[in-house]
Specification:
LRR_receptor-like_kinase, Ser-Thr/Tyr_kinase_cat_dom, globular, ATP binding, mainly alpha, Transferase(Phosphotransferase), domain 1, Kinase-like_dom_sf, Protein kinase domain-containing protein
């Protein structure tokens, strides 16, 4: 695209997909770690075509130790990146659709985290050791200055 000076929204989407791959893999487009001067797009596509490769294997090693929920977000973002780098420009999503997809990933994650937090909070609350309203003890449930402790009657005198 750059040589032909034919820059379109779809070429911007492709570039954005490459940037997403850079962020997720920790590599540059023509990183020295890539075999034989291969481009990151070709490397990712080649790796994913192998049956033994899991999407997580594409991620930067420093990201692989993060919580599962974040790994899930990154693999979904990898899916968005793959849509962006489609070799057929007409099949690439519009940038507004890319934005919507990434926001959905974020919202799903936030909803999931909120639900998990609620469950953890609920489960972490210790059950009461005893319920005073059903206690068989002779201790009064409510202590009031109006109650005269010795007479057994209310202190309205």
């Amino acid at each position: 695209y750059g040589y032909r000076m034919k820059i379109t929204e779809k070429s911007d989407v492709y570039s954005y997909g490459v940037v997403l791959l850079e962020v997720l893999t920790g590599m540059q487009p023509t990183d020295p770690q890539l075999p034989e001067g291969m481009h990151i797009v070709n490397w990712v596509c080649q790796k994913l075509q192998k049956e033994s490769t899991n999407a997580i294997d594409i991620l930067d090693e420093g990201l692989r130790g993060l919580p599962d929920s974040q790994i899930e977000e990154m693999t979904q973002a990898l899916g968005v990146a793959l849509l962006c780098i489609n070799s057929c420009p007409e099949e690439r999503p519009a940038m507004k659709d890319v934005t919507v997809m990434l926001k959905e990933i974020m919202l799903e994650s936030e909803e999931c985290c909120a639900k998990a937090r609620m469950i953890i909070e609920h489960m972490s609350r210790a059950p009461p050791s005893h319920c005073p309203s059903f206690s068989r003890s002779s201790e009064p449930l409510i202590t009031s200055p109006m109650y005269s402790s010795g007479s057994g009657r209310l202190g309205f005198d």
